[in-house]
Amino acid sequence: MAEVLEKQFTTKKLMQRQDELVTLARHTLQCSDADQTQVNIITSDSALTRFANSEIHQNTYEREASLVVSVRLGQREGRISTNVLTRESAADTVARAIAAARISQPNPDLADLPTGPYDYPFRVDYHEATAACTPEERADMVIKGFEAGEDKDFNASGILRTGQVNCVVANNQGVEAAVHSTKARYQVVWGSHNSSGKSEIEARNIKDIDIEEHSTKAYAIAKKSQNPRNDIEAGRYTVVLGPNCISTMLGFLAGLGFSGRRYNDGASFMCGRMGQPITGNQVTITDDPLDERTLGLPFDNAGVPSQRITLVESGVARAVVHDANTAKKAGTVSTGHDTGMRYPAPRNLVLSPGISETADLIAGVERGIFVSNFHYTNVVDPMAAVITGMTRDGTFLIEDGKLTSGLTNFRFTQNVLEAFANVTGMGTELLYMPAFWGAGALVPESMRVDNFNFSGKTDF
After folding, report:
1. CATH homologous superfamily for the domain 2-214
2. Is the distance from CB of 248 to CB of 435 less than 8 angstroms?
3. What is the pLDDT of residues 355-400, one digit of tens each?
4. pTM above 0.85?
């Protein structure tokens, strides 16, 4: 059944499906006599091939749908959702949303819904090769990745996921937006009894994912980090960080400081620091859903067009992102970052690249540590942007500009802004990586940081 469903996703059928959802959104608006009404409809299809011990052991397929109705009666709001996408269900959902609004408390910070129509930026978000990818096709790709493991003491585990999503936003103020997009994700971990290596990538088009390249990369890291040394003590070191580490730190910055809600509440590290240096001058951070290398959409949850926002420019704090409600409180306008969760946040981060190759960054370190990945990362002090976590899947000693041996893992406790202030070089190539807080990030392939704090170590 899953294979039959997956083969249905041709461009023609998806466009027809999107037209049906737009028609349903218009019908839902017609059912409402509230002062203001917004309708969000999302349908998604996701297929997953999972593997372990270099064998495929699971194929899953999910189809999900939701219709959310938000209504305003003055400063009172009601919001109700359903997963039944029929005209009758839509009308019932409107009635329940209005009933909820009538008994809700007035919210003085509630902003008006945006007024349309808007012109939305064009980008190619849908790729049929991704949407129509079958279990057999995913299996062939995954099995090809197994060929990287020449040593039988090493096994591969991970996932290959493909899917598509339809998003429709409409309100009774003239906003109407629709998009269908695709996404593929490959993640592989090669491991032995005392080493591991990981690589992952996301892309709109599955044809842009070179599974053999990523599997070979993860295997090489696992192979090189065998029999790790345990005689290197915790402390402060010059480090060269891989892209997973960089995107993790960026994701925490997005959640802890770049949200207009945290800024309005005085809970952001950006408070009182606009126009002041907060990192080193090599660091420029933007949120850019219009960059086709990111996986952003042309509009936010309220139907406001997406736009590029410079958050940090050459180390200087410049902006936070807003939805309509946080913008009203701040006396500004929405930046197109309504997430539907009352918490505007950047989700398409871009860290400007440097001018160095990874090998050159390593060559410039007399004695330090190379970290491939961060794991189990969490917040210690949100206002200071201090996080803690573990190294994983390839930690190496750097001596005289070369990777000399694998190391057992360290715990780190690090102020992220301080780490970005201590950057001494970044790679030239940008890679798209998943990040925390629902974000994704385009980051350099590597970054060198002085005085990075390892607060403990492990025996594995």
Report:
1. PmbA/TldD superfamily (3.30.2290.10)
2. yes
3. 999 999 999 999 999 999 999 999 999 999 999 999 999 999 999 9
4. yes
